[in-house]
Amino acid sequence: MAAFDEMYGMGDTARPAYRTIKSWLDQSDPENLKRRQKEAEFLFRRVGITFAVYGDAEAEERIIPFDIVPRVLTSSEWGTLHKGLVQRVTALNRFLTDVYSGGDIVRAGIVPEDLVYQNPSFRPEMVGVKLPHNIYTQIAGIDVIRTDDKDFYVLEDNARTPSGVSYMLENRDVQMRLFPDLFAETRIQPVENYPDELLATLKSVAPLTSPSEPTVVLMTPGPLNSAYYEHSFLADKLGVELVEGRDLFVMDQIVYMRTTRGPKRVDVIYRRIDDDFLDPMVFRPDSVLGVPGLISAYRAGNVTLANAVGTGVADDKAIYTYMPEIVKFYLGEEPILKNVPTWRCREPDALKYVLEHLGELVVKEVQGSGGYGMLVGPKSTKEQIDAFRDKLKAHPDNFIAQPTLALSTSPTFVGEGIAPRHVDLRPFVLSGADKVRIVPGGLTRVALKEGSLVVNSSQGGGTKDTWIIEDPE
Amino acid sequence: MLSRHADNLFWLARYVERAENTARLVEAATRLSATPVPYDDGKNEWEMAVAGTGTLDLFRKAHGTEANARNVVDHLAFSAANPSSIRQCLDIARFNARSVRTALTMDMWETINSGWMETRGVTSANLSRQDLSDYLSKVKEISLRFDGSAYRTMLRNDAYYFLRLGTYIERADFTARVLALKADVLDPNRPSAGGSFDYFQWSWILRSLSALTSYHWVYRDNLKPNLVGEFLILRAEMPRSLVSCYENITLFLDSLSRDYGRQGTAQRKARVTLGQLQGTSMADLFRMGLSNFLNDFLVENSTLGSAIAEQYLG
Q: Which is nearest to B155 in space by CA: B86, B231, B104?
């Protein structure tokens, strides 16, 4: 299947946005590029930008491969994307506010009741809790792809604890260190202000009773977590304490951290830990990562959790299929970003179609993430498809299916030279009390295996620096 | 700052310092073992090196009573069974550093992380003398770079103070431990064993504490047991002496109490110890028994560590 290439389009001459990249690649000696690629790997290792892969004890700490060829978008392409992202995340926050208060959208018959209230990520504890400024997902990562030079499609909304932003920042840093000349030739919108924007966002959503300079902390499950590097990186850039559950305690529904000067009150917790582990008194009683009493302090309005508890109900893949309707329902606007056409296997007609076309479709678990538990029909053997068919028939509600999209490709350095590889893009959308902030660009993920469509780092994906440049003449 | 982070910093510094000290001990033993002079006081140089780290019981459990270059180098540098081996120290230091990334500067973190990566592949199997020497140099370099980058790049606030407290408590412990091991040969009233035996004992002490050259600069004299003792206990210009360690400990504890606006047991204890060190002489120490003094000091020093933990790190 021919895919749209970010550099060549569907033809063989470079698109204007990629002129600089093209001439740079043409003039570069592959040996030199190879050296630079090695150097990049060395830099990442030395800084300790590693991640852990679950179930892979051998490779306790791996680095996500960094590709030295940047991915380029023009300002006007970004402009459209930006508008679409603001619209989509605004709708997500409206939806979450609604399902935890009145439930208008369910009563209007737009989204089926059971998909919301029977959803394992729906948190009954949150019903009737009033959040400051009605913001649930302060930090969202929206995965978008394109299949031509016009439209962007949303592949997935990540409204819980999206990760990867540290790679966006480090990739830029490393790219500038390795190829300073490239940056002299092109005006690229900066991303380094992300931590400032994030901190402003977090402060803006502090409890209404907080002091004017609220105390913000970042909460991590600890050094063994796969994204620990990112947690410490962000806390450092934000200038806030990186806390674990055992550093916090709750007294009279107020959250404190244990410091060398005694207890200090905490107002905003940017938590990078799942709902289930937040508070053993409310969620999993066996969790040692959480803070007993945290949820009672939260419900009393004495602390802000970012993201809010219960946002998972909005980024579920079943709810995803209703996003165009959700945007229209709350905002009265046409969605700017499209959804990938999706079959809901819970609907008998759709299921029938999916079962008949398994070989052509991508089938995903509604609750899955990280590229685990999915079937990519055209890349699977007959045995794999048959095995998946049985799983699907047993629990059709758990699955959705999408056509195998020709994700755009982007020139990528592989082994000896440059070759096209499929990419997606995860911009990070920050929703504060005052406004929505998006640093131009995001994290481009690239499937390094030839022909592969799976960009997840746990499945052999890499990342690229992402440039938003001025529109070429 | 978070109590847990302060605790991590304190121990990070202790483990880095311990790795360096152990490397110096192994170097001193290697050197002594290459010396042609026969001497014997029941312990050979390898066993002394193990005793210097306070892990003799552990060593004997694993290797019996026979201490030689091979099993001691393995025990002190690489063993997973010895929680104070250089390898373990660097592993724990890196784990702690990862846990307090936000309290470290980039230079400090990179020193620990890249040092850990560069040394973790080295094992005792097929290790030549040259390999060992390179390895020990690398370990010392990690500690020196860590120390230097802390000095040059860290903000002077509580994080820095806790880090330094860890360094000096560990250093005082090590100096006292090495001296305690040889307290008997430092007594000037003891009958000389004659020949070069005493000289090698004294120079081993100084070498293990990187103090041989500086001894000559301070005293411009050949090695004398009471001067070796004085140099390592009472001379403030010697950065590994007990009094110098306690000047620093007091300084950083006072900085903490000034910043935090209150003081406690740790400050009082440290000042008492410093006062004792400043108010005494070698003659006094020999009168009360050098060995007794050093053993008391080791206990006091470790109690101070607990007092700091109690007051700030709990």
A: B104
Number of domains in chain B: 2
Choose among B99, B114, B312: nearest Cβ to A260: B312
Tell me, yes or no, whether B86 and B42 share the same domain.
yes
Q: Do both B302 and B165 map to the same domain?
A: yes
Distances (CA, A) of A123 to A119, A282, A310: 9, 11, 5
pTM: 0.86
Interface test with B, best of A44, A51, A260 (most B CBs within 10 A): A260
Order of all β-strands in the sheet with A254-259: A248-251, A254-259, A262-265
Residues 91-130 of B with CB under 8 A from A: 95, 98-99, 101-102, 106, 109-110, 113-114, 117
Q: Which residues of B touch A261 (CB under 8 A)?
A: 260
B232 and B242 Cβ atoms separated by less than 8 Å: yes
Contact assignment for A260 to B162 by CB distance below 8 Å: yes
A260 contacts B101? CB cut-off 8 A = no
Task: Tell me which H or E stretch contains B141.
Answer: helix B129-153
Residue B197 and residue B279 in one domain: yes
On whether both B54 and B137 belong to a single domain, the answer is yes
Report the alpha-carbon distance of residue B85 to residue B63 in Å, rounded: 15
| A243–B2 C-beta distance less than 8 A | yes
pLDDT tens-place values along chain A, 473 residues long:
578 999 999 888 899 999 999 999 999 998 999 999 999 988 888 777 766 544 444 445 677 889 999 999 999 999 999 999 999 999 999 999 999 998 999 999 999 999 999 998 999 999 989 898 999 999 999 999 999 888 899 999 999 999 999 999 999 999 999 999 899 888 999 999 999 999 999 999 999 888 889 999 999 999 888 888 899 999 999 999 999 999 999 999 999 999 999 999 999 999 999 999 999 988 888 877 899 999 999 999 999 999 999 999 998 888 999 999 999 999 999 999 999 999 999 899 999 999 999 999 989 888 766 566 788 888 889 999 999 999 999 999 889 999 988 899 999 999 778 999 999 999 999 999 999 999 999 999 999 988 888 888 777 789 999 999 999 87
Q: How far is CA A69 from CA A72, A323, B59, in A?
A: 9, 33, 54
- Look at B101 and A246 and tell me if their CB atoms are within 8 Å: no
Regarding whether B205 and B168 lie in a shared domain, the answer is: yes
Query: Which positions in chain A touch B313 (Cβ < 8 Å)?
Result: 260
Cβ-based neighbours of B274, under 8 Å, separated by 6 or more = B243, B246, B247, B249, B250
Residue spans of the domains in chain A: they are 16-207+303-337+406-469, 341-403
Task: Chain B: give the shortest CA distance to residue A219, in Å.
Answer: 12
Structural domain boundaries, residue B3: 1-154
Give the residue from B154, B175, B200 where a domain finishes: B154
Interface mutation vs chain A, best among B3, B100, B161, B260, most A CBs within 10 Å: B3
Which residues does A181 contact at the CB level (< 8 Å), separation at least 6? none
CATH architecture, domain A341-403:
2-Layer Sandwich (3.30)
Contact list, B307 vs chain A (CB under 8 Å): none
Number of inter-chain CB pairs under 8 A, A vs B: 58
Residue where one domain finishes, among candidates B136, B154, B172: B154
Do B194 and B217 sit in the same domain of this protein? yes
| Partners of residue B5 in chain A, C-beta under 8 Å | 241-242
The SS3 of residue A276 is helix
